[in-house]
Structures are given as structure tokens and as C-alpha cells.
Amino acid sequence: MKRISRFLKDRSGNIAVIFALSLVPVMGLAGVSVDTARLINVRTSLQAEADATALNAAVGGPNQNFAAQINAMNDRVTAAFGRSGLSDLNINGGWNGLDFRVDASARVSTMLVHTLPGISDSVRVSVRSTARLHQPMLQYEPPEVSWLDPEAGDYNRIYVYCFDPDPDSGKTLAQRRTQRTPVQDNNGINYLTRWPNQYQWPRCAEGETISFELYNLRFSRTNPQRIDNDPSTDHTWCQHTPTTGFPHPCRHRYFTDTAHVNGQEVHNGLQYDILETVLCESMEECRPASQGGIIPSGTNRTPQQAAQGCSPGRFMYYGWEDRPPGLPGGTANWTQMGWTDRDYDDIRIIMECPQLDTTRERYVRLIE
């Protein structure tokens, strides 16, 4: 018992015990400092690479292949950090309008900090960079051909407008649609040629895109004046009674709200499968297949979508279905709300691809 008592009272070796117990948090704090500096270095380098890649890709423009820029960044980052604990490197790039964005992330192994309880042996770092291309404006000219089916029972009028595709512009959707101008209706009126002093083709500002609106007025081809009446009160002529008030089922407005993504037109405003687009090498090619062209025909089909962007010297065909599939109502004949033949030729427009205004400066800058 005396030996046990002496052992319990013995204080020799306390420093060694205390040092051993404090070694783990001390090493952890040292690891935090070392690993934090390392993570900052990797992230700073990754951000610099993303910035350079975004700028280089943006200079080429939406019609250029940016895959080489992404691959080159991957090779540089791997060569610089691949042997230093960098893994799971993921780099993506793409166009949104005139903005090219690069997203990059990777896992970086920790050297000391993971000795602390609950700390992983690697940390993911992520960066993003966006470069905006300020290029010569695209100058669209009025359509080479605009034709609306005069045999339709509905009244159709097509409009053109300029659209700002930037959702962060601080403007409402209506404010982002400007210079709305009627082009033609299916009563044979071409507004641009009949009243040239009143209606002019829009000239869009930098970053804006030419877009179209189809105004479809059911059962009204012989009563086009209804399109300008107050829709909240003028509905007695409609063969179908609304269930939720305005808009009632005889008025339909379809906006393309066109944006350019990777050089290709994307129609963000269309909620229904209503528009067919075909890229033609020449005007002669923009004819129905039955006439030696490449424009498809036939009913009850899925519309084509151009797989490439519109570039100078080519032509873009737009074919509309004035009654899109998916609307509620009967389908037995054209007097019922859900009827459609899905031939996508009720409204046909052929546009020459835009030319570049080469008098404007072309440059890029980082915006994110």
C-alpha cells in the first residue's frame, strides 16, 4: 500500500505527459497553417488559369471550337499540381449569349490538418470565371420571305422585336423586349412594305438578339380587328368560355426570346413545341423537299431544330405551327381548341444570316 501511495504522489515526468497530450492539437494547428497556405496557392493558380481560359475562348467568339482551350487548361493544371495531391479535376466551359464561363474544381489532399478528429484528408476547391465578348453587332435585315397561310381559320400576325437575353440586367421581361414591330399577317398584309414610314425593321443594340412573336387569334381570320381590342372584355365571340379569366382560350401570344448559346439559337420563351428551324446554305435550299430543297413537310411530326448557328452567307428558315400540340380541348376538327395538324408551315419566314458591323470594336473583359 505504501508503494501505491508513493506512486500516486509522484510528480516526476509530468512535462513529458503534458507534452504528449498537447502534441496532437499543436500538430493540428501547424497543419491548419500549412494546409491553408497550400489550398490558397492551389485556388489562386486555378483561378488564374480559369481567367486566362475564359478570355482566350471568348476572343474566338461563339462560332469557334473552345474545346482546345479547356483541354489546354486541364493539361497545365495537371502538370503543375498533379504530383502534389491534386485529384478529381473537373473543368467545364460554355457560352451563354456573349458570355463565356469556365467552372473548375478539384480535390486537394491535406498534409497535416486531417490529423484532427472529423477533418477529411482532402478538400475541394472551386473557381469560376466569366468573360464577356464585346463584338461587332449582328445586323439583321428584313426577311427574304414571309408567308402566312391564308386558308387558316385563325387570324395570325407575326411580330419582330429585340430581346436582351441577360436575366441579371435589372429589367423586367417586358422591358427586355423592345422595338416590337408587326411584320405580316395571314390576310396578306406586309407591314414593312405597305407602311414603310410607320414600321421599320428593328436595329438591336449590342448583346440583343432578333426575336419573333406569334399572335394567334382563334376563329378570327376574317375579323382581324379583334387583335387590337381589349382582351379583358372582348371575348364574347370566342367559342370557348374561359375558366380563369384573362387570358381567355382564344388569344395566344408566343415569344421566342431568342438567345445565342455556343453560337446556336435557343428560344427560351417558347413553352410549346411550336417552331421549326432549318439552316440553309442558300435561298434555293430553303424550299420544300418536294421542290428540291431541304425544308421538311407533312403532318403530325416533330419539328426539326437547326443544330448550328446562323453564320453570314447562310439562311435560316422558321416554320411555325399556329396551334401547338399540348393545349387542352377536343381534337376532332379545327373548331375545337386542342386540334392541330402539326405541319409547321402556317407561318414561314426565311432570314438571311446576319452580317457583322465591322466598324465596331471587338474586345473581351472579365465580368466574374
At a glance:
With 368 residues, the chain is α+β, with helices and mostly antiparallel strands. It is built from four helices and 16 strands.
How many discrete structural domains? 2
The main sheet comes to: 4 strands, antiparallel
How far is the N terminus from the C terminus?
A: 75 Å
Contiguous runs where pLDDT drops below 50 for at least 5 residues: none
Query: Class by helix and strand content?
Result: alpha+beta
Q: List the helices and strands in order.
A: HHHEEEEEEEHEEEEEEEEE
Task: List its traits.
about 375 residues; alpha+beta; 2 domains; four-stranded antiparallel β-sheet; 4 helices; 16 strands
Description:
The chain is α+β, with helices and mostly antiparallel strands. The chain folds into two domains: 15-134, no CATH class; 138-356, no CATH class. 20% of the residues lie in helices and 29% in strands. It is built from four helices and 16 strands. The protein has helices at 2-9, 14-60, 67-81, 191-194; strands spanning 86-96, 99-109, 122-134, 138-139, 145-148, 155-163, 177-185, 209-217, 251-255, 258-261, 264-267, 275-280, 315-320, 347-352, 355-356, 363-366. The strands form five sheets. The chain has a four-stranded antiparallel sheet, covered by helices on one side. A four-stranded antiparallel sheet has the order 5-14-13-12, with no helix packed on it. Strands 7-6-8-9 form a four-stranded antiparallel sheet, with no helix packed on it. β10 and β11 form a beta hairpin. α2 (14-60) runs antiparallel to α3. The radius of gyration is 32 Å and the shape is elongated. The model has no long low-confidence stretch (mean pLDDT 83).
